[in-house]
């Protein structure tokens, strides 16, 4: 059974991500956790300590959160009546990133599936700050779904790599688990700067070959392009349904996301994006 965490702020963007998850795993036995976090707008710890009546406000916000989660669960049952899927609700008095970290540490969560922007998202910002912070701090595969993306079977997966990661089974299992549900080809894209592969890179490439030997895969090498250009140019030639990256601290992933303006990214991403942490909770 897969355990999938679905954070929601009840926006259309988060509903779109939930729909994607329900369709992606439609043939899998899954337990979905709908998560809404809340903090009352005028909540102050010192006021609660001094004024017990403030607790009533917290309770009211929690009741509203649970009510909306119940309505969302009813909507899922109505639109996606899948006997393989169980829906659980979590209303938590916490900020979103801390609560996701807490749940991932305490439940066997396989994926967190979330929209790329919250209710106040703007078109200029690809990833909302919550999504970026989740990428940075949550040790669990994160699937980020663009706001307007309608579900597509992941027939073509793009996996850019610098071969600097010594791939472990927990890096590749989240990818293999998804693509084994469908007829999928993995396109492994190496963007080089004209140098030959080091012995370590060659060894890591062999690990990938071994893990993907039962799955259709192609290796692609491009040079004299940035990673962003390589990804963008590949998407122009091939209809990609899913982009996958490993968030390795010293890899191009970090340069791509965290060295420049935190919300900006150099390529236009219009497909779901699976981010796998370099380390998981067991490492």
UniProtKB/TrEMBL annotation:
Short name of one Pfam family: Usp
InterPro entries attached to this UniProt entry: Rossmann-like_a/b/a_fold, Universal_stress_UspA, UspA
Domain UspA residues, every copy: 1-146
Coiled-coil positions: none
Top-level taxon in the UniProt lineage: Bacteria
CDD domains associated with the record: USP-like
Bilayer-spanning residue ranges: none
Family of the protein in this entry: Belongs to the universal stress protein A family.
Alphabetical list of PANTHER family matching this protein: SENSOR PROTEIN KDPD-RELATED, STRESS RESPONSE PROTEIN NHAX
Protein name per the record: UspA domain-containing protein
Higher taxonomy: Bacteria, Pseudomonadati, Bacteroidota, Flavobacteriia, Flavobacteriales
């Amino acid at each position: 059974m897969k355990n999938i965490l679905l954070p929601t702020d009840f926006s259309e963007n988060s509903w779109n991500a939930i729909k994607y998850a329900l369709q992606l795993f439609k043939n899998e036995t899954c337990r979905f956790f709908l998560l809404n976090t809340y903090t009352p707008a005028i909540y102050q710890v010192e006021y609660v300590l001094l004024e017990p009546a403030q607790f009533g406000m917290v309770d009211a916000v929690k009741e509203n959160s649970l009510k909306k989660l119940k309505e969302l669960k009813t909507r899922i049952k109505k639109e996606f009546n899948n006997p393989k899927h169980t829906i659980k609700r979590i209303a938590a008095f916490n900020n979103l990133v801390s609560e996701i970290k807490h749940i991932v540490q305490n439940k066997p969560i396989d994926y967190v599936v979330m929209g790329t922007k919250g209710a106040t998202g703007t078109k200029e910002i690809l990833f909302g700050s919550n999504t970026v912070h989740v990428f940075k701090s949550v040790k669990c595969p994160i699937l980020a779904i663009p706001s307007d993306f309608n579900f597509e079977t992941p027939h073509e997966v793009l996996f850019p790599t610098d071969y600097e990661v010594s791939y472990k089974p927990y890096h590749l299992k989240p990818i293999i688990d998804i693509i084994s549900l469908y007829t999928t080809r993995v396109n492994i894209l190496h963007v080089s700067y004209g140098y030959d592969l080091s012995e370590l890179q060659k060894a890591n490439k062999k690990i990938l070959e071994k893990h993907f030997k039962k799955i259709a895969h192609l290796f692609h090498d491009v040079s004299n392009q940035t990673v962003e250009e390589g990804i963008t140019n590949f998407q122009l030639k091939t209809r990609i349904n899913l982009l996958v990256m490993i968030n390795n601290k010293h890899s191009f992933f970090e340069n791509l996301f965290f060295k420049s303006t935190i919300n900006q990214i150099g390529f236009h991403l219009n497909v779901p994006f699976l981010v796998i942490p370099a380390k998981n909770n067991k490492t």
